[in-house]
Design goal:
Length: 270
């Protein structure tokens, strides 16, 4: 598989599990110096042990740092320390986020606030910390993570969809803002992906949401990571990266056949 050869130092935020860990593992196996960041020290320790065993070359640096993306000052301080130690990153992938499905009136207030803080504001905080270093270096790529639910609103995911739509808009505006400085911005829109977060999410899904998702195909975190890195290896990577051929067809329909998509995604009466 062809990968993006210019990358030598990568930072993966949300890299202690799920898609982030899968991305980090593939980067380590191809020889990158990689730092994974996450809020949980315990999860980082487990991830670091696993990643260290997959080193591709002598002298390859693999490290882990705690970051709470909801804390803008702490995020910036940690990023500044990393850049001072490793130099500016060639690739930044932010996968930090979570979903708590449920009918809007029944969603706990802390989860409404939490999804906004982690998914949207967290993405902004990471970008604000990373972008000055990328712009100063005149190179690099920043990848934000949205969702298929960030391309089409899905019942049972009102607040989650709102945050992920916001990530898409943020990434689009940021791409246009910093493109003149040689920095690329992309947004990853995965479908339902088999991760620990997805397992937790399933425990909160209303029956109608679970029934609707029975028809939807899921991907593994490793499959999503492979498609992301393959997309970034292209000469002109697309701004919006949608893993899976069927999902790319769905994204096309969302854009060009909204009436059909609206019927397909409407909540059934129960």
């Amino acid at each position: 598989m062809a990968y993006c050869r210019f990358v030598t130092f990568s930072i993966v935020v949300g890299g202690s599990e799920g898609i982030g860990l899968a991305v980090a593992a593939q980067l380590v196996r191809r020889g990158d110096d990689v730092v994974v960041c996450s809020r949980s020290r315990a999860k980082l320790d487990v991830a670091l042990d696993a990643l260290a065993e997959q080193r591709h070359r002598d002298g390859q640096r693999v490290d882990a740092r705690q970051i709470d993306v909801t804390d803008p000052h702490g995020t910036r301080e940690t990023v500044d320390v990393l850049v001072a130690e490793f130099g500016p990153p060639d690739l930044v992938v932010n996968t930090a986020g979570y979903a708590r499905p449920g009918w809007l009136p029944e969603l706990p207030a802390e989860d409404v606030q939490g999804m906004v803080d982690v998914n949207l504001r967290g993405t902004i905080h990471v970008a604000r910390a990373m972008v000055p270093h990328l712009v100063s270096a005149g190179r690099g790529r920043f990848v934000a993570t949205s969702s298929m639910a960030g391309l089409a609103g899905v019942f049972g995911y009102t607040v989650y969809s709102a945050t992920k739509f916001g990530v898409v808009g943020f990434a689009e505006a940021l791409r246009r803002e910093i493109a003149p400085f040689g920095v690329g911005v992309h947004v990853l829109c995965p479908p339902n992906t088999l991760t620990p977060g997805f397992e937790t999410e399933n425990r909160f899904k209303p029956a109608a949401v679970l029934a609707a998702e029975e028809k939807a195909r899921t991907m593994t975190a490793d499959q999503v990571a492979t498609e992301l890195l393959r997309a970034l290896a292209r000469r002109r990577p697309k701004p919006v990266i949608v893993p899976g051929r069927g999902n790319r067809l769905s994204a096309f329909a969302i854009r060009h056949l909204p009436v059909v998509v609206d019927r397909a995604l409407k909540r059934p009466m129960s």
